[in-house]
Amino acid sequence: MRAVHNQLIRRGDDRRDGRRRGFAAAVLAVTLALASACTDGGGGKPSGWQNGADQPAAPKAAAVIVEPRADAKDVPASTGITFTATEAEETSVELKDSAGAAVEGALAADGKSWLPTGALKYGETYTATVTATGDDGKPATATSTFTTMAKPGKQVRISSFLGDDQVVGVGMPLIVKFSRAVPEDYRDDVQSRMTVTSSPAQEGIWHWVSPTEIRYRPKTFWQADSEVSYRVQAGGLPLGDGWYGRADLSVGIKIGPAVVMTVDNKTKRMTVTKNGSVIKTIPVSLGKKSTPSSSGTMVVIEKLRKTVFDTFEELGPEEGYRTKIDYAQRLTWGGEFIHAAPWSEGQQGRVNVSHGCVNVSMANGAWLFANTRVGDPITVKGTERKLQNGNGWTDWNMSWEQYVKGSALPYEPPTDTAPEESAEPSATPTT
After folding, report:
1. pLDDT in tens, 201-251
2. 398 in the Ramachandran plot: left (φ > 0), alpha (ψ -120 to 50) or beta?
3. What is d(CA 84, CA 91) in angstroms, rounded to the nearest whole number?
């Protein structure tokens, strides 16, 4: 009986196994039927579906806001929007304040950042939206909401030597000063916020003269009658040690005709050209051997119709003098001028008798004063002393290669414009 019982058990197992196989076959049949229903009927790939409807494909493009990060606090008011966009044919940026008002701004030339036209408000909440659109026409967006810092107590004033609508000579450097030294590590940030626009377009670069002063000059003299504007977007910009830029700075100027003066010690003559043509030749007397004039390229710094030269402190009671001067045009901080010197008219064109100045007659001094302006360049050749860089606006006394080295940012030659012609054959004449 035990053997029979075991046999019945095995037979029972066989029946259960048969039911399992039958059930599995039925499940497989249903699965195959469902699989068949999810194909295109022609052996193609399965289609995506949800609730019985096809869904649109994701945009090809993608955008990510790098800075300011979402929910960031105490963001500098100088902030721009830095982002990455992939597979994008077109990218746009929108920035709105807490009231929903749009902030004006523009994309940087590299297309990787966006900068407001002015500093943002302190203690305000903004929302940035970056939209990237690929060649499929589908936009992808990224957003970041952040809050700017409270107004800082330590602010650096930024000023320009030139004012709006001023007309200057073709050798005029653009000069920007800071009320506090800018640490070297921050100068590239400052310079990246400084832009120069000229019409016609001309190649140029910024050059740090000192920790508190930066200048800009084109590769060659400005083209006559150019219009130039420059902007420093440093409002709220961190400048080191808890200091921030006080405000943005914008200036627009005009370049006058190309009046260029060249003095040759060998001939004792000044040649004056205007827009490339000689308009006057003037006899001069330069510095005597004990006080020679400087050879190099200088720029007219200031013009004084009448002044007094007092050199007693500098030269002492024996060599010093106090003299009334007419038609003075400063060339160096050390005291070299172009000026009328009626007492040396007999030596002008023949002998050097001055203390380093360019002496001309009263009539020629008046003519020069009427036909020149601040920023006009003058090159003196062949004297016993070389001009020291820094003794005046000596930006043109350096080669272009030397000048570029004073930039805190790598120099990138323009690729979209042809080289512009100089007002003169060379911006840094051989001395």
Report:
1. 999 999 999 999 999 999 999 999 999 999 999 999 999 999 999 999 999
2. beta
3. 10
Nearest CA-CA partner of 102 in 122, 129, 134: 129
DSSP string over 110-178: TSSEEEESSPPPTT-EEEEEEEEE-TT--EEEEEEEEEBPPPPS-EE-EEESS-TT-EE-TTPPEEEEE
Q: Write phi, then psi, for 362 (nearest 5 degrees).
A: -60, -40
Segment holding 190, helix H or strand E = helix 184-192
Q: Where are the beta strands (DSSP E) in 162-301?
A: 167-168, 174-178, 194-199, 204-210, 213-218, 227-232, 244-245, 249-255, 259-264, 269-274, 277-283, 294-299
- CA dist 106 → 24, 53, 77, 80, 272 (Å): 66, 41, 16, 10, 44
Nearest residue to 158 (alpha-carbon basis) of 90, 255, 231: 231
Backbone conformation region of residue 242, classed left if phi is above 0, alpha if psi is from -120 to 50, else beta: left
Q: How far apart are CA 431 and CA 424, in angstroms?
A: 15
For residue 416, what pLDDT is reported?
60
Q: What is the pLDDT of residues 19-50, one digit of tens each?
A: 344 433 333 333 333 333 333 444 444 444 45
Q: Mark whether 5 is an active-site residue.
A: no
- Sequence-distant (6+) residues with CB within 8 A of 76 are 148, 149, 236, 237, 238, 244
Helical residues (DSSP H) of 223-299, grouped into ranges: none
Q: What is d(CA 141, CA 146) in angstroms, rounded to the nearest whole number?
A: 17
Q: What separation in angstroms does the CA of 407 have from each of 194, 305, 318?
A: 12, 36, 45
pLDDT digits (tens, 9 = 90+) for 48-86: 445 555 667 899 999 999 999 999 999 999 999 999 999
Bond from prior residue into 425 cis (ω within 30 degrees of 0): no
What is the pTM for the complete model shown? 0.80
Distance CA 409, CA 196 (A): 15
> Which amino acid type is present at position 43?
G
Q: Pairing relation of β-strands 155-156 and 244-245?
A: parallel
Check residue 283 and give its pLDDT. Answer: 98
Which one of the listed residues 5, 38, 207, 357 is annotated catalytic? 357
Which residue among the candidates 5, 38, 339, 355 is catalytic per the annotation? 339
339 is catalytic: yes
Burial (CB count within 10 angstroms: exposed 0-12, middle 13-18, buried 19+), residue 261: buried
In angstroms, rounded to a whole number, what is the distance separating the alpha carbons of residues 362 and 171? 25
